[in-house]
Amino acid sequence: MNTATQRDLSLDWPDALYETLKSANVAHMSYVPDAGHTTLINLLNADPDVTTNVLTTEEEGIAIASGAWLGGMRSVVLMQSSGVGNCINMLSLPIQTRTPLFMLVTMRGEWNEFNPWQVPMGQATQAALEAIGVNVLRADTGRDLVEITEQAAAMAYDADGQIAILISQRLLGKKKW
Asked: How many domains does the chain have?
């Protein structure tokens, strides 16, 4: 078990998640800005050993992650569940080429959701990813997220897998506007 999982992860799971990604030699991150990923985005952006880029749309991250792998870098793509719908066609790239893909997806449309527009894609996210061939794992606690990330990184980078971890809305908390 990673040393990051030894501490109380109820509040500091983003820091432990960052450490887990670093331990997996992730050196690239693509993201669409998202409140649920804010701490992780800030940590990776501040790391001089990690190349980051902001996406204009989520599907760009799929292609960029494939290119990063071809260039010798391990990449992670951060997005919200609403962005998964934008990626369905582009997901055929890593599926067909068996290129590693590692995505961290913050969920919307679940527990304590206030925005009804988020519900349909939130309900369809897992099924849509599985239908195209992505292996989907789900984290409901900080400890789960760190432990699952450690294993999912190995599945993606060592076994050429296409993996998405869904980070539950309950773990993230209610969005405030």
From this structure: 1
Q: What is the CATH number of the domain that holds 142?
A: 3.40.50.970
Is 24 buried (19+), middle (13-18) or exposed (0-12) by CB count in 10 A?
buried
For the sheet with 26-31, list strands across it.
51-54, 26-31, 74-80, 101-106, 162-167, 135-139
Report the run of H or E that residue 74 belongs to, with start and end. strand 74-80
Answer whether residue 132 is part of any domain. yes
Global pTM?
Answer: 0.90
pLDDT reading at 54 higher than 90: yes
pLDDT tens digits, 89-139: 999 999 999 999 999 999 876 677 676 677 677 788 999 999 999 999 999
Does residue 177 sit within a domain? Answer: no
**Using an 8 Å Cβ cutoff, are 107 and 122 in contact?**
yes
CA atoms within 13 A on the CB side of 55: 25
> What's the CA gap between 148 and 137, in Å, rounded?
7
Q: Which domain holds residue 34?
A: 3-172
